[in-house]
Design goal:
By secondary structure, the protein is mostly helical. It contains 7 helices and no strands. GO terms for molecular function: cytochrome-c oxidase activity.
Length: about 220
Amino acid sequence: MENSRHSDESPIPLHKWRSYLPDWLKHFLPIGGGRAHDDHGKSMFGFTVFLLSESIVFVSFFITYIALRLTTPNWLPPGVKGPELSTAVIINSVVLIASSFVIQPAEGALKRRNLGRFRLLWLITSAMGIYFLVGEVKEWLGLDFGPSTGLVGSTFYLLTGFHGLHVFSGIVLQIIMLIRSFIPGNYNKGDFGVSATTLFWHFVDVIWVVLLSLVYLWRA
């Protein structure tokens, strides 16, 4: 009879330096080979790989944007101010970044099986994400340029729109996880969905910080 436990066949000896990592990072690594109780860790590792692939897409966009900015003499067409770091943009950014400090305690509350606190913090996180999206749409409607206004228009709407799509996806995932919390015993066997959604939301926030620096803080 084949043993259900086998050694970790990873080419990198993760188990040797796992003890040096912070606790929040340990459960993202596929330590333990094929053991059944390590399913959560392997799932999180797979989701982390997915986020790394998403990072490559964003990084390629950012590199292209930087290259275009550096090689285009007249980045802003005549009469176009371009995206500005207005008060509304600052508030939207603060709200989105602050939401990471709300969703993390929400995940912790679920792990302690405090469903009431989890639902409240999770709902606040979703509301903050919705606030950001509404603010972004309002900004688009008030700009003096569109997607067809030279490179500044096409790159701006591509970057902010692609990021906004990720924010929207994160909100949808949050709503699904919130609804699942009302199913009796749904999270008794694990909370991978909540952990993955939390990690995705942190990813979205980090991407926005980079995007904000490139698009709004880098002036022509």
